[in-house]
Amino acid sequence: MPAVALAVTDGMLHYELSVALEVFGADLTHVVDPWYDFSLCGSGPVSVDRFRLEPDRGLDHLADVDTVIVPGWADTDRDPPAELVEAVRAAHTAGARVASLCTGAFILGAAGLLDGRRATTHWAHTRELARRHPAVTVDPDVLYVDNGDVLTSAGKSAAMDLCLHLVRLDHGAANANRIARRLVTPPHRDGGQAQFITTPLPAVANHPLGELFPWALERLDQPLTVEDLARQAGMSSRHLGRHFRQLTGTTPLQWLHAQRIRHAQELLETTDATVDSIAAATGMGTATTLRRHFHRSVGVPPDAYRRTFRP
After folding, report:
1. 50 confidence band (pLDDT: 50, 70, 90)
2. 78 FRET partner, CA 20 to 30 A, in 103, 179, 195, 215?
């Protein structure tokens, strides 16, 4: 059973903290058994906005877990507590995977865990993170960054994206999708936080592409083109591309490719279908093509992925 600890102190953002609690701290053994051995770690009672938390363990326990989650830090103009920074650094040294949510990246930066790495935080604070930690490559456009043992998320709702990504790494895409369905949230959002900076994300139900997405997802086995999607949406290819970029932060073909890879993951986890059959079902054509694109996107070949996540 993987052990996850949420590192807390006064002055943290309650939204990001509650997201991590909901994903890792809830009893979800009816979905995945065993789930996570979860603990709330702090040096004493913690005030989070109008809430008060009673940690289960001290900060020294962070060094004994597999994954440490650091929620958002409310006052980025103020240095985070030295004891928290040291505890997070010690946990990483001991081998823990460390993930920050939103402005929790400032705590990882203070601990030196982001030096020489790519990282992100809420778009409104990316310049300050880069100024304060010049050895960090700050990416203001992505929803989260995965460096393997150090992960960072963008602001607010991107905390959920990163938490579900961790579940996907630990328990597979099918189980992450089940958790997302329970939380009534997308299991994976394409694009980055750049789409949220100047204009709000339009509600899909009221968007011109609202009916196109389910139509395309039902036809992943077919050789869909941008022209096919544009014809179905009743607009020009250029107009379609503009709407896609606004809504997803990516192009129609990149979105289609991501959906095909995701569908292949689910089929590898939940069926005994051959790689050839899965290639046909996902519109990849041949097993060779699927293996090449799957390895490039997921990091391992389909057979290795199935061995890891097939119950």
Report:
1. confident
2. 195
Average pLDDT value over all residues in the chain: 87
Residues 190-248 pLDDT 10s = 555 543 433 333 444 556 777 888 899 899 999 999 999 999 989 999 998 888 887 77
| Residue 51, token pair as written in the block | 């809430």
Contacts 24+ apart (CB under 8 A), 146-149: 147/117, 147/118, 147/119, 148/97, 149/92, 149/96, 149/97, 149/98
The whole-angstrom separation of Cα 207 and Cα 96 is 42
Residues sharing a CB contact under 8 Å with residue 40, sequence separation 6 or more, in sequence order: 5, 6, 8, 21, 25, 53, 54, 55, 56, 57
Confirm if 154 and 196 have CB atoms less than 8 A apart. no
d(CA 211, CA 243): 13
Structure tokens given for 134: 């010049």
Closest CA to 71 of 142, 22, 118, 37: 22
Report the distance separating Cα 39 and Cα 26, nearest Å: 11
Of 99, 204, 206, nearest to 160 by C-alpha is 99
21 Rama class: left (phi>0) / alpha (psi -120 to 50) / beta: alpha
Q: Tally the C-alpha atoms within 13 A of residue 28's C-alpha that lie toward its C-beta.
A: 23
